[in-house]
């Protein structure tokens, strides 16, 4: 059946079956989580998932790059032409990391929240989940500064920020926070800031088991509680992240 | 044109045929037609449906928040001058507080972003409640009359929309989950309670407020504006 298709149609179709609406996909997943109805399709098509999951294994060695995508495509049984089916290129691979690691948190949380030294209370659970998510960067942390430079590009920044917002939402939700008042916003904004600055810190942390990152994270979370809310954390975050982020971007050749 | 065909084709062109079967199998599991899903055949909510449901829960949360604040602000001035209205005021307040708890729970459960205009609605609802209460019992009741008229119509519109969703699913041969059916029940119950408030207000001389036509029209326009904004922000 497939062989009956003329070549040109097949190629055109291959390109158009995946519309360039990745941002919309991510966006729409926030709206109304149903427990009855089958979930909406994820942000990646079947072929994309195939290529990306294979390419992801090459990230520790080759980074979030076209090289990793090509190797992944080959592993998946597709030749080099196939990565062009991923319109966002290397950014797709970054998004794949963000997306899969965010979803993985739910399963991990049931382990974290069991046992004798399980965190008690929403605050402790947020800390534990945030740390767990940071540790999911372990295998790729030496490639993460390059990834941050790609994420900061104007065409990718909205999708990157959206993923960050969804990670914060996931953590507060899994931690069992039920507030739906204005603190819903400040909590998510604050955690987004703390997570991203901790992640940036981690890219330069060479201490064993990232103890320095762990201390950094706990200091930031502690400040939010002691300084009395988001304002202190925002000032802190803007200060640290702006200077550290600019340094990272400059070191990657951005002219800013 | 199905992606399966196209990708299978491009695979055939670009690399060894041996890997094709695995990939085609992987691709074909993506679709969920009613016949493929065991006993419960529910259709995936479309993006539009999920956005509609989110915005409906969000605007309802905002509305019930406003309602509790209106009654909270109205109660002291009204019951000071008319102690016999105390049971009615507290009965209506209790019902509004229960409505708010219902929608707060649903917002959390379905992971919907709450209204971003929370502080604005708080200030405006408190101002409206207090302002009408100091104008007198009739004005306070006219306020309830106007608000509940708008809110009753607003809940009716939501119920109609959900019933339409349900009808379409049934026509297409899908089942209807308890989630949406229960939501319709909840909206009906709350709508009925809002209309009760409307009746109470009219019984207590809402129509005698001066100038009734101006007061109710201004408040109803305000409600429509607030609903419009809450659906979006
Ligand atoms: Fe109500
Ligand atoms: Fe009411």
UniProtKB/TrEMBL annotation, chain A:
Q: Which GO terms describe its cellular component?
A: mitochondrial inner membrane
Give the GO biological process terms. Answer: ubiquinone biosynthetic process
Which InterPro entries does the entry link to?
COQ9_C, Ubiq_biosynth_COQ9
Give compartment(s). Answer: Mitochondrion
**Protein's name according to its UniProt entry:** Ubiquinone biosynthesis protein
* Organismal lineage: Eukaryota, Fungi, Dikarya, Ascomycota, Pezizomycotina
State the organism named in the record.
Emericellopsis atlantica
Residue intervals of the COQ9 C-terminal domain:
157-227
Keyword entries, A-Z: Lipid-binding, Mitochondrion, Transit peptide, Ubiquinone biosynthesis
Automatic annotation (TrEMBL), chain B:
Residues at which Fe cation 2 binds: 96, 148, 194, 197
Pfam families from the UniProt entry: COQ7
Its EC top class is oxidoreductase
Reaction equations catalysed = a 5-methoxy-2-methyl-3-(all-trans-polyprenyl)benzene-1,4-diol + AH2 + O2 = a 3-demethylubiquinol + A + H2O
EC numbers on record: 1.14.99.60
Q: Which InterPro entries match?
A: Ferritin-like_SF (IPR009078), Ubq_synth_Coq7 (IPR011566)
Give, as in the UniProt entry, the pathway in which the protein acts.
Cofactor biosynthesis; ubiquinone biosynthesis
Name the residues that bind Fe cation 1.
Answer: 64, 96, 99, 194
Cofactors (names): Fe cation
Is Metal-binding there in the keyword field? yes
What's this protein's function?
Answer: Catalyzes the hydroxylation of 2-polyprenyl-3-methyl-6-methoxy-1,4-benzoquinol (DMQH2) during ubiquinone biosynthesis. Has also a structural role in the COQ enzyme complex, stabilizing other COQ polypeptides.
What family classification does the UniProt entry report for this protein? Belongs to the COQ7 family.
Q: What is this protein called?
A: 5-demethoxyubiquinone hydroxylase, mitochondrial
């Amino acid at each position: 059946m497939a062989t009956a298709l003329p070549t040109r149609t097949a190629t055109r179709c291959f390109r158009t079956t995946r519309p360039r609406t990745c941002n919309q996909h991510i966006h729409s997943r926030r709206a109304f989580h149903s427990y009855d109805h089958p979930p909406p399709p994820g942000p990646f098509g079947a072929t994309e998932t195939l290529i990306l999951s294979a390419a992801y294994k090459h990230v520790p060695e080759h980074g979030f790059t076209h090289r990793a995508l090509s190797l992944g495509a080959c592993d998946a049984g597709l030749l080099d032409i196939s990565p062009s089916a991923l319109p966002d290129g290397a950014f797709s691979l970054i998004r794949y990391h963000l997306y899969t690691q965010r979803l993985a948190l739910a399963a991990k949380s049931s382990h974290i929240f069991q046992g004798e030294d399980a965190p008690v209370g929403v605050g402790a659970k947020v800390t534990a989940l945030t740390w767990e998510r940071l540790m999911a960067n372990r295998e790729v942390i030496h490639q993460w500064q390059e990834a941050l430079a790609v994420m900061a590009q104007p065409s990718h920044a909205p999708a990157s920020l959206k993923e960050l917002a969804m990670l914060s939402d996931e953590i507060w939700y899994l931690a069992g926070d039920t507030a739906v008042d204005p603190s819903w916003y400040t909590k998510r904004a604050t955690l987004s800031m703390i997570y991203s600055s901790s992640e940036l810190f981690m890219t330069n942390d060479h201490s064993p088991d990232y103890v320095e990152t762990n201390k950094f994270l706990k200091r930031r979370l502690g400040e939010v509680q002691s300084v009395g809310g988001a304002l202190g954390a925002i000032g802190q975050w803007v200060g640290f992240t702006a200077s550290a982020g600019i340094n990272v971007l400059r070191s990657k050749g951005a002219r800013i | 044109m199905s992606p399966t065909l196209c990708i299978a084709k491009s695979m055939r062109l670009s690399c060894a045929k041996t890997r094709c079967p695995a990939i085609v199998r992987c691709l074909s599991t993506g679709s969920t037609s009613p016949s493929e899903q065991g006993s419960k055949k529910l259709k995936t909510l479309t993006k539009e449906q999920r956005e509609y449901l989110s915005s409906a829960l969000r605007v309802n949360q905002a509305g019930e928040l406003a309602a509790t604040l209106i009654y909270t602000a109205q109660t002291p001035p009204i019951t000071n001058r008319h102690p016999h209205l105390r049971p009615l005021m507290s009965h209506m307040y209790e019902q509004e507080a229960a409505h708010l708890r219902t929608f707060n729970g649903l917002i959390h459960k379905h992971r919907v972003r709450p209204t971003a205009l929370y502080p604005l609605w708080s200030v405006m609802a408190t101002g409206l409640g207090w302002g009408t209460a100091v104008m007198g019992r009739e004005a306070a009741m006219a306020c309830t009359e106007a608000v509940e008229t708008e809110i009753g119509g607003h809940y009716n519109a939501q119920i109609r929309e959900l019933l339409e969703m349900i009808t379409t699913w049934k026509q297409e041969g899908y089942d209807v989950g308890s989630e949406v059916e229960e939501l319709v029940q909840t909206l009906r119950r709350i709508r009925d309670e809002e209309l009760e408030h409307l009746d109470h207000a009219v019984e207590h001389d809402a129509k005698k407020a001066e100038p009734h036509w101006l007061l109710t029209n201004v408040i109803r326009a305000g409600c429509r504006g607030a609903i419009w904004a809450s659906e979006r922000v």
